[in-house]
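OP here, attaching both records as promised.
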Amino acid sequence: MSFLSNSYKDASRLSSQIISYGNKQFKVKELFNIKGSDIKNIIIQSSVDLMDNIGKGLNNINITVHGNVGYSFGEQMLSGKLMLYGDALDYAASGIKGGSIFIYGNSGDYTGGKTNHGNVGIVDGFLYVKGNVGNNSIERMRRGNVIVEGNIGDYACNDMLSGTIIIKGKIGKIFAEGIKRGTIFTKDKKVVKEYNRSNDAEYNFTKFYFKEISNVIGQKMFLENKNLIRYYGNTNSSNLSEVFLFKL
């Protein structure tokens, strides 16, 4: 389904686009309806998890999807916006370089991680997941912002180089192994087990950051600054990351 990321002059040409699936050929309009005539703002009204690569390499186009999607949703996205009102399979938002992805459901393994043919995770961009996220997610993140309201699986955030991550749910095993830099907000105490606790200075930037993030996702979801405890580094001298722990 990566053809959706191409530039079309009008919606009728997109609807008449012929694609191959196995040994069969279909017109786009035979698979799903595209609402409206604005080719830069595509709305897929009914999707199924057989539809892989929606938004792959997306550049300056907005796509809204109702239903579940297959693998590689928004993989290596460049710019624009993807909104999914359903669940995504593995490799969603893997290797994205810009733009914004909103998943109002669950997402599979390797979410926001390395692509299945590369060694680079999120280069930049914004990712929001309302539900749970699978294993090996957000690996080798270089820059950007990730918000996970649900739980995240094992081997998440490994080899993180920079960026900011908020995880409201529980965190699986082997978290942030090999991390170099970056900022993580979490409620899970086991994350800071080997970190050093900072002093009780006031963190002005977090109030601004939470306000900006709340504006992006359209809801207030964070606690006040007074409920944050900052930790930095750990027994590994190459770790220059910081963790903000929400006091419950």
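Record two, same layout:
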Amino acid sequence: MPDAALHSAAVEPLAPVFREWTLPPQRAGARAVARLVLSNGGGATWRSRGPDGLQVSYHWLDTHRNAIVWDGIRTAFPRPVAPGETVSLDVPLVAPRPPGRYVLRFDLVEEHRFWLSEVGVGTLDVEVVVEPGIADRRLAVVVHGGADARTTAALAAQEEPLVEERPAATAHLVAGAEPAPDWSRLLLDAHAEGWDAVGPAVVAGGGPLERRRAGRALRRWAPGGRNPRLDAPLLLPSLVASLVPGEHDGLPAYEGDGLFEGRAVVRLPTRSGRRPR
């Protein structure tokens, strides 16, 4: 949307003038592209040198102006921008997690040196409502390996009923798995928070010796914590519907073998005293 020109209060040579901006709806954890029009109101030419030099970027702040995400994606200038010239840029960005009210602050950075706002140069602040990562709480389930009475009963007892059509996310299980009653709710909560793929904790059944052996076998697949960079495949994932092969940040398609290698992932811990999920 157009906005009145916001002039930097700084003296030359650094004085960007933000003239217009367009921002699509924001969903937690999702990528989008903003359109930014700004002019060089200072006395020095703006130059990007690949990943170095002057870059356009952003910060996500809370409503009290505390930084939530400081280092946004960098966008280089396509050409040198001389004093008095105007340039239009497509600025890719990733919305913060969880959903809520934020301030998106567009800023310039002299890479490896300083942010312009740190030396008194003005920014463009936009108040943004970040919506949940999924529009609808609709979870479908695919069970691999045939029918199993225990799995069927556990799915029928879910806190949030499962759907067969128009799911926002699809979870994968193997026959014999018994998800806890809150499994569907926890998966949908995590997707709403902005995670594209969610992996449950896997707890083996049987006697103590069987559980120990299974635990050792599963350990290599389960790096712990809320880590968006996986170092091992993900077991029994739940994936948002937008995960299409080749169309979502390099995430591959699920191939039905119980394993998934992805990027944006949260693992839900197993609670003591609860059935395995």
